[in-house]
Amino acid sequence: MPTRSSRLKQSRRWFLGAALGGLGCAAARAFAQVDRVSAALPSTLVQSARAALEQHRIEHRDVVAIADFSLPSKAPRFHLLKLEDGSVSSHWVAHGRGSDPAHTGWLERFSNEPHSHATSAGAYRTGETYIGAHGRSIRLEGLDATNSNAASRALVVHGAWYVGAAMVGQWGMLGRSEGCFALSHESMNEILTRLGPGRLIYAARA
Known about the structure:
Helix 2 packs antiparallel against helix 3. This protein has a nine-stranded mixed beta sheet. The protein is globular, with a radius of gyration of 18 Å. With 206 residues, the chain is α+β, with helices and mostly antiparallel strands. The protein has helices at 4-21, 25-37, 43-55, 165-171, 185-194; strands spanning 63-68, 78-82, 88-91, 93-94, 122-132, 135-142, 156-159, 181-183, 200-204. A hairpin with a 2-residue loop joins strand 5 (122-132) and strand 6 (135-142).
């Protein structure tokens, strides 16, 4: 008769296999429960992120990030969603200056064009971490036609001095990036810990 330990090991192997092959029951339940967990996540974006997770080969399905660019930059709109229990943590994120030429604090347009300095919509796979001009950062691979130039445009996740409570308090909005997902340096500690290589970031407007 299998021991409790062997049964647990078999269960873990089955769950890991299911997670790599599809969304998995736990993930599906988490997505279904998000509206009850956090009103900050529009159901349209949640469903789009779910579809992206099913469509693309994403190695790790424990956490996904959803960037809701229908909100102004003063609102925490970069959401880390833990699929096991549906819990959400939200962070400030800047959009590209090409997406907001007048610097109103609102994203007006997405662009995938080189030298546009704009934010690109779509699904991203996180890559390796590295140390660059903004400290520890995360490389990105664009998975859709709307962000296919992400790597060649050097779009990454990085910390920035122009993102955080002080900027919102003084100016009522964040600064702008060159198209990267720029977060506060304080948020980057959690982002680097929870959003390592092989995970999904989905960016869009609700």
